[in-house]
Amino acid sequence: MKTIGNFGRFKQPISISLLKRFIDIALLLCLFALLPFYCANPLIPTGGPKDVSPPEVTECIPANYSIQFDSKEIRINFNEFVNLKSSGSEIFISPPISNPPDYKLRGKSAVIKLDDTLSPNTTYIITFGTSITDITEGNSLSNFRYVFSTGTYVDSLMITGQVINAFDNQPQADVYALLYTDSSDTIPFDSLPYKGKPIYIAMTNEQGRFILSNLRYDAYKLFVLSDKSGDFQYNMPAEKIAFSDSLIYPWIGPKTTIDSLGTDSIQPQDTILSASIELSMFEEIDSTQDVKKSDLVKNDEFMIVFAFPPRDPVITPLNIDSTQVWWMEEYSLNKDTVILWTVAEIPDTLTLKISDEGTILDTVIISPTKIIPRKKQKKEEEKPVFLTLSWQPRGGTINHFKYPISGIFSYPIAEYDLSRIRLFTERDTVDLPIEFTDSLQRKFHIDYPWKEAKSYKIFIPDSSFISYTGLSHDTLVYSFQTANSRDLASLLVNVDISSNPGDYIIQLQSEKGKTLEEQYLNESGQIIFAFIQPGKYKLKAILDLNKNTYWDTGDYIKKIQPEKVFFFSKTIELRGNWDVEEDWSI
After folding, report:
1. How far apart are alpha carbons 157 and 546 in whole angstroms?
2. Residue 581: beta bridge partners?
3. Are 403 and 428 in contact (CB under 8 A)?
4. How far apart are CA 166 and CA 553, in angstroms?
């Protein structure tokens, strides 16, 4: 047989070892080829990062900021499918029209139909607020506006401002800034927020800022409402209000540039100009007196809560002899709550007529005896009832430099023996002077020359006090230790009110805003908060215009703004045995 080329070498038999080696190499190559498939992690695809982008406007038909507008339909196209909240609190048109527009979705478009006749030579703004969101993650296209004019130009004036809470100066988000003009012959100007509809509307952002833009030149009255009812009218007392003291004229804002998609460069939350207005929002006191609550607190103790402190309250029983002495009264510190303690036999239910300044407020029926369920009646009857005593402060280490030691009994006291009470010190036992501070002899305080960093124990033997209902108490022991002045701090504040003179209430507050103590001044000078527990504190000042020593809210009918408040620019940290001095110009 003839051989061709080098193939002739295979005419000889192939050895077994060479064949085995060839097979091993082939298997190894196959293993390397399959290795990437075995090393790959077989995870389910995640679908990519979470969508956090709001919808984008791709086209407006007619174009945003159109002039000589005469269309009955507006189409706004987006780059994705969207949801549209078409409630009046989310979408509104300024100036308002008689028949609100109809808002619908068609594919990736929002379609607005205008069924009303538009006024000539008028600029209209449709504000969408946060109503436009994508359908996947709910990302909102905030404060998009569609602007058009039925005339030959778009109005370009604006009014900007910020809304703060009058009591704590915190920004007020998602409230409505409303503009009114004196164009009504039937509604008085001062009644507009109650009865009229605003001409222009804007919503505040998270910083409490608003921009009323594309305004025509006119004199406006500016209000801000929380508008819980959604009717853009002031419905007191449930809603908060802020108002400008005088008429406001709009000013020229930054030049608005329109991009190819009809989106303007100035949106309502972008910026606040130097000419902006600050408004203080407040909640008025309900001037209608009422009984908010009436209830039995415990046996022989009734509670009546008024809307505000009554001026001349009269409480008359209707089903017992009203000429007999049947109760003792005790008012709360702010005088809006009265506790009635019964001192005579009364029926199973007591009917009371409650009046103030001659006006009948309510007729209430109260059961003077607690109803005990049958299953628990035997157990409750066997449980003895005692006169109890609550101490202030409660005990432990007390700051006797700041707070007097006082107590309050659960019932008014009829009989007592103060000579039995003893004070145990580290070295001695002494009599303790106790003085009642109210006519019912339920509250008392102890005036004693306490020494710092010392342990004390007050011992009250059983039945030293007896209530008017005959209740007594077991032996009472109150243990405490007085504070060490070296563990406390002092704050010295140099207050300068020369730029804004007046009568001020200067409050020391906790970091969370709770008022701990306050002082008064009517001229620049230094105030001292001494013997303070270490911690972080705030300073608040109230301009007390009516000199009644507390903060007053506003009153729109009387055109009274809420009293101004000021806060020190930083939180103050106090440490034990330290004196901190701060300068504050108000």
Report:
1. 38
2. 492
3. no
4. 8
18-47 average pLDDT score: 50
HEC letters along 185-232:
CCCCHHHHHHHCCCCEEEECCCCCEEEEEEECCCCEEEEEECCCCCCC
Q: How far apart are CA 78 and CA 26, in angstroms?
A: 59
CA 81 to chain centre: 35
- Nearest-CA neighbor of 551 among 561, 538, 559? 561
Q: Does residue 230 have a pLDDT over 90?
A: no
When mean pLDDT is compared across 183-187, 335-339, 543-547, the lowest value belongs to 183-187
Kindly report the backbone phi and psi dihedral angles of residue 530, in degrees, each rounded to the nearest multiple of 5, phi listed first.
-105, 160
Residue recorded with tokens 């415990």 = 298
In 3-state terms the chain splits into helix, strand, coil percentages (rounded to 5) of 10, 40, 50
pLDDT recorded at residue 464: 96
Cβ count within 10 A of residue 348:
8
Split at pLDDT 50, 70, 90, the class of 59 is very high
- Classify the phi-psi angles of 249: left when phi > 0, otherwise alpha if psi is within -120 to 50, otherwise beta: beta
DSSP state of 545: T
**Omega prior to 95 cis, within 30 of 0:** yes
Q: What is the DSSP string of 354-371?
A: EEETTEEEEEEEE-SSPP
pLDDT in tens, 78-126: 999 998 876 556 788 888 888 888 989 998 999 999 988 899 999 999 9
In this structure, how many other beta carbons lie within 10 angstroms of the beta carbon of residue 323?
6
Query: Considering only CA atoms, which of 513, 521, 510, 530 is closest in space to residue 577?
Result: 530
Asked whether 341 and 352 are in contact (CB, 8 A), the reply is no
Which domains does the chain show, CATH number per domain?
Answer: 57-149 (2.60.40.1220), 157-281 (2.60.40), 291-366 (2.60.40), 389-483 (2.60.40.3710), 487-585 (2.60.40.1120)
pLDDT at 480: 94
Per-residue pLDDT tens over the stretch 251-291:
886 655 554 454 544 444 444 444 589 999 999 988 788 99
DSSP state of 282: B
Spatial separation of the C-alpha atoms in residues 158 and 145, rounded to whole Å: 15
Say if residues 539 and 567 touch (Cβ distance below 8 Å): yes
- What is the rounded (10 degree) CA torsion for 282, 284, 290, 294? 10
Q: Are 336 and 309 in contact (CB under 8 A)?
A: yes
Q: How many CB atoms lie within 10 A of CB 347?
A: 12
* Strands annotated E in 128-205: 132-134, 145-149, 157-165, 176-180, 200-203
Does the pLDDT at position 306 exceed 60?
A: yes
Q: How many helices (H) and strands (E) does the chain have?
A: 3, 43
* Cα distance between residue 101 and residue 122, in whole Å: 17
pTM (global) more than 0.85: no
3-class SS of residue 375: helix
Asked if residue 504 lies in contact with residue 586, where contact means CB atoms within 8 angstroms, the answer is yes
Give me the amino acid identity at 384: P
CB 320 within 8 A of CB 331: no
Residues in contact with 357: Cβ distance below 8 Å, sequence separation at least 6, in sequence order? 289, 310, 311, 312
